[in-house]
Amino acid sequence: MGIQLNSSKHTELANHAWSVADLLRGDYKQSDYGKVILPFTVLRRLECVLEPTREKVAELAEQYKDTDIDPDRFLRRASGHAFYNRSGLTLKKIAADPQNAAKNLAVYVGAYSDNARGVLDRFEFAQQIKRLDSAGLLYQVIGKFTDLDLRPETVPNHNMGYIFEELIRRFAEQSNETAGEHFTPREVIQLMVRLLVAPDGDALQLPGAVRTVLDPACGTGGMLSAMDDLITELNPDATVEVFGQELNPESWAICRSDLMIKGQDPENIAFGNSFSDDGHKRKSFDYMLANPPFGVEWKKVKDDVEAEHRGLGEAGRFAAGLPRINDGSLLFLQHMISKMKPVDVGGGGGSRLAIVFNGSPLFTGAAGSGESEIRRWILENDWLEGIVALPDQLFYNTGISTYFWILTNRKSPDHKGKVVLLDARDQWQKMRKSLGDKRKQLGADHIATVVKLYGEALAVAGDAEHPLRGKVKVFRNEDFGYQRITVERPLKLRFEITEESLAALEVSKPIQKLPQAPALADAFKSLMDTSWATKQEAWLALKDAVVQAGGTWPTGAPFNKALREVIGIRDPEGEVQLLKGQPEPDTELRDYENVPLGEDVEEYLAREVHPHVPDAWIDHSKTKIGYEIPFTRHFYVYKPPRPLAEIDAELKALEEEIQGLLEAVTE
Fold first, then answer.
1. d(Cα 392, Cα 442) in Å, to the nearest integer?
2. Which of 489, 498, 490, 488 is CA-nearest to residue 568?
């Protein structure tokens, strides 16, 4: 787990960095403070990490200065890290020479190795240097950061993440952005990685274990760090290679700098949109985890995603279906599934993945929709291992309920064909101080309870005496499937001429197009308030009236259809209308029913529908297969209303209390 830094200490360090805002006020908008504070914090962290070998590297760089040899490999070795700085300058030295601060800082930043300089470039650091220098603030800002102690022995890598996240949270608040798009609460990550890795504990402890991890929406890299920590905690000799992709430039830069400092390859963190510009094409991973932003539309990459869906089909990532444009969550899941390692004949290989969703992907979308088809694809391939419901108010940017989905293509034999639903909504403790929408947190005991319960889910669900049995349910994959049937009922009409039907005749376009339209209206008036039980009787009477008036009866299906619409009145006792010899369905009475997968729909119709409407039938050509996971419904517990006597007694007590207060006021 690494050295723990108490929260007051990392808040104190974040406050120190953010105090630069006092200098920026007036020259910078509040929403731009982070553009200065974040890159300077990264720069100071890099400087503190390199401090022990700084002079040694500068001397070595000087030796190679006028040679044709590329000293990169030697300088890395001398620095003891994957990055270095060739200059003898420090922020302290630069701050001590205010007149040349801009020039010296540019030289200092330019002396970093390419990978470190690339991180600072993402912050558009050169522009901020110019802007600060123009405002006469540069040397003062640098001076503030020279006092910030970010040495690894004071602030370990694991805890540096807290400081960056706190700064990003403040930056997001000032910018009116969503902090939750950048990072996930650490205790939520701890639960997630433990659920993901728990079944593999034994395999991970084997000598020489190598594991690859991907987060396709990695933010500042908190999830990747936690996976690295957990696997190396289980096996200190294991090799963990982390990969990620991030769209936000500040978060990407922080994640990349974190990897550099830890000795991981920063090139493994791609920049850009995972959907339109996959930074890890044709790669597969042992573990994947993500907390993609909730309910964010994917309109910007619509053309790329749809082109892959149509053009590549099964060879692409999105063959199963496309969700509605205003929520790309299920696109992330398909993207991750496409990177699962295949399972070999001996049962080895394969992958496990976890993703944080809100409630929408569980049930949004009717049968045949993109969302339903994606759920169907996942369940029919037996990839969904379990879903864990988390407490609400757990995230910084939303108070809504959230869920972990855990998927794998190497389920254990006892889990095959099954899905675990675990209700952990009551596993939380109240925070002393809220952070945004976050008012609850998971304690170490809660995490341990949920991990144990998930690992023993099948046994707990089968043990009627287990105290937590009500929190775990196990279903077959097909239990989430249903047949959406279209129930039709016959169109029944009577026919009559009324003021309303004559008015409708005058605005009926198919009838008004006819040259004899006025004559028809005049002829029909002679039958005012006449009613007929059948269409045949009505048509004979109307035809006779037109002929007697000296007119001609129009022919053709459009006229007959339009006339029926004008004079036909829906009537439960009316004549059943026929279409090609079969009862014509009444679109206004059409209904839909969801029938469990595997159940005979005709038996369902006879049992559930015919007792109420005996003339109904199923249009089998319209039947669709759908999948949904009604999590809340499965864990619903009925709470009877309080007895009326109890409510009455409470009301009387309140009345007496109010009366007493009023008397006290009037005395």
1. 11
2. 498
